Amino acid sequence: MPSVTVGVEPLSVQEIIAVARDGVGAVLSPEAEYEITTSRKVVEALADDVEPHYGVSTGFGALATRHIPTELRADLQRSLVRSHAAGSGSEVEREVVRALMLLRLHTLATGRTGVRLETARAYAAMLTAGITPVVKEYGSLGCSGDLAPLAHCALAAIGEGDVRDADGVLRPAADALAEAGIAPVVLAEKEGLALINGTDGMLGMLVLACHDLGELLRAADVAAAISVEALLGTDAVFAPDLQALRPHPGQADSAANLRALLDGSAIMASHRNPECTRVQDAYSLRCTPQVHGAARDTVAHAATVASRELAAAVDNPAVTVDGRLESNGNFHGAPLAYVLDFLAIAVADVASMSERRTDRMLDTARSHGLPAFLADDPGVDSGHMIAQYTQAAIVAELKRLAVPASVDSIPSSAMQEDHVSMGWAAARKLRRAVDGLTRVVAVELLTGVRALDLRAPLAPAQATAAVRELLRRSVAGPGPDRYLAPEIEAAVELVASGAAVAATGITLS
């Protein structure tokens, strides 16, 4: 099985995706093993120090004033992991847990945490063996990092709790480790704390969301282009010189996509004559580059934040480059929480505009000659009436999910941790929002393709026609009402998989 080499340099998005989604394993680089071994000596040198050192010879959080004698320090680390593995609710997705473990492994690899080499190797071995700890939905406040989710992973590494094996079967961690030939970790000084004190869950979900939204915004441009054709709109407003008057990079990219997708459309050319009295299109058509572009720029900003976090080594206390063990606040999730919330706002707005274009195609007062609800026999048939209801329900949910999590804070640990980020919650709701946007764009695509068919004999552009042909392989053309849910799901698959964008034959920005 191929493996990603985890060293001291930041992991790439492609490497994270490969491990999280494709089941690729992980192995430590020689440089990482050297850094881990070197920093461990710092922790071991402090183990017998009469001075207290947080995470080595003290309790945790509000209990940090308790000095822990040498003979109880292994118990201290094990108790920390057991007590902090306190998650509740549904299981977190496998890809999120694998991303979380990989990112924690990378922090261990930097040598800034002070763990032993065998502990880091155990995480790499678990990833390679496909052993995924069971992590629950609730438990992280995003400060001190993602304590509960990371604690469930650490619990599995010591041979306790439950995991999913490579086949997805729920098993006791001890059994899965034994079958894979992985010795359970016996935690030494500071190791329990080093395994749970990070922003890895928030960061993993941010990286996955930025990747997915990059793909999804291209699909949104495809659906919008089809809608512009179906509604007899114009591509004149997407002209480069007009877009350059407002030089946002995302806007320029979206407009360029729309021009390329609509190039050569006979449908739009059909109404470019003196008899056409329309001066300008509705906002949901005309302003597509401005909204889709702003979302792109938001994703770019979030990706910049993610890249900085990927270059970080988050732990408390941290082993400094010159060999000190110092307490710090780098575990606070605010930088991630803010952009996770920002992305949810952009998702909701892109979806809202998509739903407005769909609704316009269904309304005879605004569709410029299309039948009511694109029905075969309006009144007998309802066409796509309720597909728009589905969109509207999702958009309403996306607006609720756009309410920021990061403005909330509930003090914890007897007021020692008196301001928290709620970044994990921001990441969880963003994942739901990305799924919702996928479905909203899919309904627009499904509806727009049906409307293109109803414009026959006028022909769409080559790129949009190719998308129509792809959809028609799994969804029949206009006709009497059919069971609509499977057709929506077929469109969802084309959007989610990237097939709809690929079908255009155009390299979209």
Quick summary of this structure?
The chain is mainly α and 509 residues long.
Written overview of the protein:
Belongs to the PAL/histidase family. It is found in: Cytoplasm. Its main location: cytoplasm. It is an enzyme of class 4 (lyase). Pathway: Amino-acid degradation; L-histidine degradation into L-glutamate; N-formimidoyl-L-glutamate from L-histidine: step 1/3. It is a single chain. The protein has 509 residues and is mostly helical. The chain has two domains: 3-198, Fumarase/aspartase (N-terminal domain) (Fumarase C, Chain B, domain 1), CATH 1.10.275.10; 205-503, Fumarase/aspartase (Central domain) (Fumarase C, Chain A, domain 2). The protein contains 20 helices and nine strands. It has helices at residues 13-22, 30-46, 73-84, 94-109, 117-129, 147-157, 173-180, 191-196, 200-230, 240-244, 249-262, 266-269, 283-286, 288-310, 334-362, 385-401, 423-454, 462-472, 485-497, 499-503; strands at 3-6, 25-28, 88-91, 132-133, 136-138, 162-164, 170-172, 318-319, 325-326. The chain has a three-stranded antiparallel beta sheet. Helix 1 (13-22) links the parallel strand 1 and strand 2 (25-28). The chain is elongated.
Question: N-to-C SSE series?
Answer: EHEHHEHHEEHEEHHHHHHHHEEHHHHHH
As a percent range, the share of helical residues equals: 55-70%
Mean pLDDT: 94
As residue ranges, the low-confidence spans are none
Outline: elongated
Total individual domains = 2
Distance between the termini: 33 Å
Q: What's the CATH topology name of the largest domain?
A: Fumarase C, Chain A, domain 2
Strands, count: 9
Q: Considering the protein shown, what is the CATH homologous superfamily of the largest domain?
A: Fumarase/aspartase (Central domain)
Question: What is the CATH architecture descriptor of the largest domain?
Answer: Up-down Bundle
| Strand arrangement in the largest pleated sheet | 4-6-7
Total helical elements: 20
What class do helices, strands and sheet pairing give?
Answer: mainly alpha
